[in-house]
């Protein structure tokens, strides 16, 4: 339900999960100590604690931002992670539009990765497939989110209208017919004009 406790609980769990996801994402490439420090800094920061305590949507958005950022970083080695990065980006945007800053940040990351991978052979090679997959997933998730958002409106409109009906008559006695919500057909001798 809605209320103070569920709102704060969602924010607190989201804040804790953001730290766990950050740790697991960094642990994939770095030793335990190097991965633990940023996760603890995030989890113990004033920002994370105050937003989790008050129950603001920023805690949930932070979780989605961390999921997207970690996925984009992992996509540098395995392009399939780009899908999760794109979906995480769209979900973060749906949580709060301020996540729009991730788009240029991800673009800058891929540009710097492309530049650095050409100069340093120890880095994983740049694969154009990673940004392509992230863009595809973001587009698909965006279309799905828009469709789900518009579904109640579409459902209501379909219930209110019939497939076809006569809505009025023209000056010459020709009935104006509405067909699937479009009222620009005139019926004359079993044909549309």
Name its key features.
4-stranded antiparallel sheet, 193 residues, disordered C terminus, 10% strand, 4 strands
What would you note in describing this structure?
With 193 residues, the protein is an alpha+beta fold. Helix content is 66%, strand content 10%. It contains seven helices and four strands, in the order αααααααββββ. A four-stranded antiparallel beta sheet has the order 1-2-3-4, with no helix packed on it. β1 and β2 form a beta hairpin. α1 (4-27) packs antiparallel against α3 (46-54). Residues 161-166 and 179-193 have low confidence and may be disordered.
Mean pLDDT metric: 79
How much helix is in the residues? 55-70%
N-to-C SSE string, H for helix and E for strand: HHHHHHHEEEE
Distance between the termini: 54 Å
Helix segment tally: 7
Q: What shape does the CA trace take?
A: flat
Q: Low-confidence parts lasting 5 or more residues at pLDDT below 50? A: 161-166, 179-193
Main sheet strand line-up: 1-2-3-4
Structure summary, number of beta strands: 4
Rg (CA only):
25 Å
* Strand percentage: 5-15%
Q: From the helix content, strand content and strand pairing, which structural class follows?
A: alpha+beta
Sheet of most strands: 4 strands, antiparallel
